[in-house]
């Protein structure tokens, strides 16, 4: 098995385990077992659990970004493009294995002690805020609207994870629609 395949097996196994059980509850031996490779080989590929987690988060960021962009792709107008963010969340929250935002979860478990994790979480959240700010700017709406819309999405993620229901996405979408309508009325 080549290194790329082995890395893929490790990262996929770690992603499933970390997301399902939590990072601190999963040891390197469990990742190794799930990936089906030797512990020595895994340490050759990844010197620590933190480096595995950093790769998991990098891939999750790519998947998140692709999903958000795909959701907005067919939006008819700027308003619907923004609201598509909450439709994306609704679909994600309804998945059987939804356990909340991996970045929030990771930061909550390790952020204070793991700089790679804190940096990945901050970069992910900043990237999302920048995307929302771009949507707001492109629509000609007030810049102050962007952080409000991003906070609705962030709050919906946490609420859905804790409550165990996808309802927070619809609530956040309705609040976002109210904010957008008020911004347009003021303009």
Automatic annotation (TrEMBL):
SUPFAM superfamilies in alphabetical order: Homeodomain-like, Tetracyclin repressor-like, C-terminal domain
Keyword Transcription regulation annotated: yes
The UniProt record lists the keyword Transcription regulation: yes
Known DNA-binding region: 27-46
Assigned keywords, A-Z: DNA-binding, Transcription, Transcription regulation
Top-rank taxon, per record: Bacteria
Domain HTH tetR-type: 4-64
The organism of origin for this protein: Conyzicola nivalis
Protein name in UniProt: AcrR family transcriptional regulator
InterPro entries: Homeodomain-like_sf (IPR009057), HTH_TetR (IPR001647), Tet_transcr_reg_TetR-rel_C_sf (IPR036271)
PROSITE patterns membership: HTH_TETR_2
